[in-house]
Write a structure and sequence with these properties.
Elements lengths: L3 E5 L10 E5 L3 H8 L5 E3 L14 E5 L28 E5 L7 E8 L8 E7 L4 H15 L1 E8 L7 H10 L3 E5 H4 L4 H4 L4 E10 L1 H8 L1
Parallel strand pairs: 1-2, 1-3, 4-5, 7-8, 7-9, 9-10
Antiparallel strand pairs: 6-10
Length: 213
C-alpha cells in the first residue's frame, strides 16, 4: 500500500488512511523523521538540499535561469544550479515549449458554473506570479471573461485576506490561485464573486514511462 506524506506550515486538511500531513517549522528534523516511512514525500523547494538521503529529485524546468547572484542566495528562488547535481540523482522536466514534459493550465474557476460575460481582477501572491497571470489570461480569452488588471502581492503575504476583502467590498469579481485561497477564511472563500482557479496538470506519456522506471 502506497503511503504519501505532505509537508506544510499551514493547518493540514483532513487526512485519509494512506496520506499523512505534517505541519512543521523544523523541516530538518521532520525530514529525518519521515524519510524512511513513506513511498512518496511531496514538499516544496525548501527541501532542495541534503535533508533527505538516497532519493531522486525531480526539477521542474521553466527555462528561467538566474540572472543575478542574488537569485542564488538561500532566500532566493534558486537554491542551486543544474550543474551542481549529479544527473543520475535528478530528473529535469521541461515545463515550456511546444511539447513540454509537464503542461499546466487552468481547468475551471470556482463559483462559475457557466461563464457569462463578466469582468474580473487577478490577485496573486505567488513566488512567480507572471506564469499564473498568463495562464489566467489564456483561460479567460476562451471563457468570455474580461481581465481588468492584476494585483501582485508578495509570496506568503500576511495582508492577502485584507486585500481580497477590500476588492470584494467594492463589488469586484476576483480570481486567485489555489495556494492563495488556502490563506483565506471560509467566509471569503464562499463569497460568490471570489473565483479560485483550479489547475490542470498533464504529464507526457514519455515522462510517465520514464518516471515509472
Amino acid at each position: 500500500m502506497m503511503q504519501r506524506a505532505f509537508e506544510s506550515i499551514q493547518s493540514p486538511p483532513a487526512e485519509s488512511p494512506q496520506i499523512k500531513v505534517f505541519a512543521t517549522r523544523n523541516r530538518h528534523s521532520t525530514a529525518k523523521e519521515i524519510q524512511d516511512k513513506f513511498d512518496i514525500i511531496l514538499c516544496d523547494d525548501g527541501f532542495e538540499d541534503t535533508r533527505f538521503t538516497g532519493v531522486r529529485y525531480i526539477c521542474l524546468d521553466w527555462q528561467e535561469p538566474p540572472t543575478s547572484w542574488i537569485h542564488l542566495m538561500p532566500a532566493g528562488p534558486f537554491r542551486s544550479l543544474k550543474q551542481d547535481h549529479d544527473e543520475r540523482d535528478i530528473t529535469h522536466l521541461a515545463c515550456y515549449g511546444n511539447a513540454p514534459d509537464i503542461h499546466f493550465s487552468i481547468e475551471f474557476l470556482t463559483n462559475s458554473t457557466t461563464y457569462k460575460q463578466f469582468t474580473a481582477k487577478i490577485i496573486c501572491g505567488l513566488g512567480s506570479p507572471n506564469r499564473f497571470i498568463e495562464d489566467i489570461r489564456t483561460f479567460a480569452s476562451t471563457a468570455g471573461i474580461q481581465i481588468a488588471g492584476s494585483i501582485i502581492r508578495p509570496d506568503h503575504d500576511r495582508r492577502f485576506p485584507q486585500i481580497v476583502q477590500a476588492e470584494l467590498s467594492q463589488g469586484n469579481d476576483i480570481i486567485i490561485s489555489q495556494k492563495d485561497a488556502s490563506r483565506l477564511p471560509q467566509a471569503l472563500l464562499s463569497h460568490p464573486k471570489l473565483h479560485v482557479a483550479i489547475q490542470k496538470t498533464e504529464v507526457s506519456d514519455k515522462i510517465l514511462q520514464k518516471l515509472s522506471l
